[in-house]
């Protein structure tokens, strides 16, 4: 930055003196009602410019007061084996980087299962209309970023298991393409094709994905499983929740499931950007869930930020959203959806008739 010459400083001070003097002269000449109107007008302009930031901060602080009243999430023990189910590379560090780091630091094991490699995010491929080849290259890049994110937490690359199923297609695999192979409109692939995936050549079907999850859970034998809640607004996250719950139920592991939400509705989490001293509050879409908070140590917060920044292809476009998860705590729920008593009858599909509940 260029330094000002002495005569420029003198001119600047003179202009400032004249400006302040003129404002005071005008202010003293106004009636009290006119002064009030001027103050209200100035306040209105300030609120218009800064209102979104002020509201977001107020919302976060108000929600933070509720976070402190939440029960604590039980920390990992020495023999813990944490398995995180991530629909896309970056979901694991957004939801649980702190828990992953502490589990590993205390002698436990951590495994991350990526259902997709994020190969449908067109803008991250460098163009609004990328070619199929560009999106396939994006998948390989995001797999490398996932490795780097885990390494930032001190975890080895062997902790990652890439399944390679279609981004933006998991919901279709759970519904219309459980048996019939799905063709990704983004990459043109109908089967797992990326090098480094757990089972190359598997068809894009829900049955193949579910069988792979059952195989992994049976092989890894995790003591705690983190997966998205079906209340998450993203269809891939909803489908990941369904597949994960079905695979765990097939092995009798339902009691080891814990849930997280990334796409929580209403610009969640507010305020956007990096705010490591603010708490992470329960998402609006997770209303009624029995949330438990996992407080993070200062070093864990720092490493979480580093792990998130390792996902450079996403940071370039979604940096303020991703960094908003770098907070004082993480949140997990032992239930995928609210218990029935937490919902109004009409929300649960029940109706009240003559004082009795009927299904």
What layout of secondary structure does this protein have?
Elements: H1 6-28, H2 32-67, E1 81-86, H3 91-105, E2 109-116, H4 132-152, E3 160-165, H5 170-174, H6 206-220, E4 224-228, H7 235-250, E5 257-260, E6 292-295, H8 298-309, H9 312-323, E7 329-332, H10 345-348, E8 351-353, E9 356-358
Helix pairs in contact: 3-8, 4-8, 6-7
**Structural classification:** alpha/beta
Q: Strand sequence of the main sheet, in spatial order? A: 3-2-1-4-5
Main sheet summary: 5 strands, parallel
| Percentage of residues assigned to helices | 40-55%
Report the C-alpha radius of gyration, rounded. 26 Å
In DSSP terms (H or I, runs of 4 or more residues), the helix count works out at 10
Report the count of strand segments.
Answer: 9
Average pLDDT metric: 87
H-E string: HHEHEHEHHEHEEHHEHEE
Query: What fraction strand?
Result: 5-15%
N-end to C-end Cα span: 71 Å
Low-confidence stretches: 342-359
Q: Based on Cα principal axes, name the global outline.
A: elongated
């Amino acid at each position: 930055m260029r330094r000002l010459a002495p005569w420029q400083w003198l001119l600047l001070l003179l202009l400032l003196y004249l400006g302040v003097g003129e404002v005071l002269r005008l202010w003293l000449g106004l009636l009290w009602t006119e002064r009030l109107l001027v103050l209200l007008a100035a306040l209105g302009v300030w609120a218009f410019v800064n209102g979104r930031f002020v509201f977001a901060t107020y919302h976060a602080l108000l929600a933070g007061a509720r976070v402190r009243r939440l029960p604590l999430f039980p920390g990992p023990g020495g023999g813990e084996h944490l398995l995180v189910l991530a629909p896309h590379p970056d979901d694991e560090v957004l939801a649980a980087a702190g828990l992953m780091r502490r589990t590993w630091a205390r002698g436990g094991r951590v495994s991350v299962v990526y259902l997709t490699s994020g190969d449908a995010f067109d803008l991250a491929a460098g163009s609004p209309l990328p070619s199929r080849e560009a999106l396939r290259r994006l998948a390989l890049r995001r797999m490398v970023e996932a490795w780097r994110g885990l390494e930032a937490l001190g975890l080895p690359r062997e902790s990652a298991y890439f399944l390679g199923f279609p981004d933006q297609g998991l919901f279709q695999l759970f519904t219309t393409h459980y048996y019939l192979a799905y063709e990704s409109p983004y990459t043109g692939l109908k089967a797992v094709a990326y090098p480094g995936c757990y089972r190359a050549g598997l068809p894009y079907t829900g049955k193949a994905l579910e069988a792979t999850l059952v195989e992994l859970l049976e092989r890894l034998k995790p003591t705690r499983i983190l997966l998205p809640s079906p209340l998450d607004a993203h269809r891939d996250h909803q489908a990941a929740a369904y597949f994960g719950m079905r695979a765990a139920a097939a092995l009798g592991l339902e009691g080891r499931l814990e849930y997280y939400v990334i796409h929580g509705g209403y610009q969640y989490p507010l305020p956007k950007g990096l705010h490591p001293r603010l708490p992470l509050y329960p998402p609006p879409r997770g209303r009624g869930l029995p949330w438990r908070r996992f407080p993070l140590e200062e070093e864990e917060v720092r490493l979480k930020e580093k792990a998130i920044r390792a996902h450079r292809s996403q940071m370039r476009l979604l940096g303020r959203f991703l960094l908003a998860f770098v907070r004082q705590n993480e949140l997990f729920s032992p239930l995928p959806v609210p218990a029935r008593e937490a919902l109004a009858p009409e929300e649960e599909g029940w109706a009240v008739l003559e004082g009795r509940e009927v299904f």
